[in-house]
């Protein structure tokens, strides 16, 4: 088995930096641009940062948990790390592409690995119309916000907003309201991954709304278009006994 050349990146915490120093001393390191895989040391937030840093390059990234939750990370074990990375299973994901049209500044685009969320900016609840593939599906949603997530992101903000967990490979995108006021009983929808979703902000001046793609925020939006961008891929590596698909399934049985 040919062992991969590894690059080591660490979150800005003492635990992650010390782990990186030990790993570099033990295995050496390669620049991220020429490495076979990148080892990200931190938590889920740092994994997200690392994926965004290399988005479009499709660099395989193997995360080791030096943070708190670590849902997207492998267990932190430093022994036989090159062998672990060589045996790891790949999960190939596609981000969401957001195009946000604003009241003043025109349009902005961003990619989201977890979710695109629309959030009210002030005390007034947001009013949002939702279209799917050109058809109005919800004429008016009065809410604190609404989000659409990737399957990998379905266990993040989407789950906190009581949205469904979506297994990888299901080709579905969960659409979830955040504190819906009207219609109060609407719990969201599961959409085909090929869907184009448009959010139109109603009464935008009275009820301003921000759109957020992971951590890229666009203020005072009028219209936000979201679709899965299958031209962009990202690869995460997981130990065979710790696959992302298995973790997503297991999370649905957590009490």
How do the helices and strands follow one another from N- to C-terminus?
EHEHEHEEEEEEHEEEEEEEH
Shape: elongated
- Would you tell me the overall average pLDDT? 93
Taking pLDDT < 50 over at least 5 consecutive residues as the criterion, the unreliable ranges are: none
What Rg do the Cα atoms give? 20 Å
CATH architecture of the largest domain: Sandwich
**How many domains comprise the coordinates?**
2
Query: Main sheet, how many strands, which sense, barrel?
Result: 11 strands, antiparallel
The helix/strand class is alpha+beta
Strand percentage lies at 35-45%
Tally of contiguous helical segments: 5
Find the CATH topology of the largest domain: Tumour Suppressor Smad4
- How many individual β-strands? 16
Describe the structure.
The structure is a single chain. By secondary structure, the chain is α+β, with helices and mostly antiparallel strands. It has 2 domains: 6-94 and 233-251, 3-Layer(aba) Sandwich (Rossmann fold); 96-228, Sandwich (Tumour Suppressor Smad4). It is 17% helix and 41% strand. The chain has helices at 14-27, 44-53, 81-87, 157-160, 244-251; strands at residues 6-10, 37-42, 61-65, 89-93, 96-102, 107-112, 115-120, 126-132, 135-149, 172-182, 189-192, 196-202, 209-213, 216-218, 221-228, 234-238. Strands 5, 6, 7, 8, 9, 10, 11, 12, 13, 14 and 15 form an 11-stranded antiparallel sheet that branches. It has a 5-stranded mixed sheet with strand order 1-2-3-16-4, sandwiched between helices. Strand 10 (172-182) and strand 11 (189-192) form a beta hairpin. It is elongated. It starts with 5 loop residues before the first strand and ends with a helix.
């Amino acid at each position: 088995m040919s062992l991969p050349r590894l690059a080591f990146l660490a979150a800005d915490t003492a635990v992650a930096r010390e782990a990186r120093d030990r790993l570099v001393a033990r295995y050496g390191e390669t620049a991220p641009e020429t490495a076979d895989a990148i080892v990200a040391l931190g938590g889920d937030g740092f994994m997200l940062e690392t994926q965004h840093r290399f988005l479009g390059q499709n660099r395989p990234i193997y995360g080791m948990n030096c943070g708190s939750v670590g849902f997207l990370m492998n267990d932190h074990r430093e022994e036989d790390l090159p062998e672990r990375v060589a045996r790891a299973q790949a999960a190939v994901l596609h981000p969401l592409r957001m195009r946000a049209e604003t009241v003043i500044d025109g349009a902005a685009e961003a990619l989201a690995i977890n979710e695109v969320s629309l959030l009210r900016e002030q005390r007034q609840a947001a009013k949002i119309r939702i279209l799917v593939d050109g058809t109005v599906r919800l004429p008016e949603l009065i809410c604190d916000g609404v989000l659409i997530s990737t399957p990998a992101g379905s266990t993040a903000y989407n789950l906190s907003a009581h949205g469904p967990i979506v297994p990888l490979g299901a080709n579905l995108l969960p659409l979830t309201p955040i504190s819906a006021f009207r219609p109060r009983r609407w719990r969201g929808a599961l959409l085909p991954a090929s869907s184009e979703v448009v959010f139109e902000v109603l009464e935008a001046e009275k009820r301003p709304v921000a759109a957020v793609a992971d951590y890229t925020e666009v203020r005072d939006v009028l219209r936000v278009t979201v679709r899965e961008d299958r031209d962009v891929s990202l690869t995460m590596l997981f130990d065979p006994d710790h696959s992302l698909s298995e973790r997503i399934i297991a999370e649905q049985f957590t009490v």
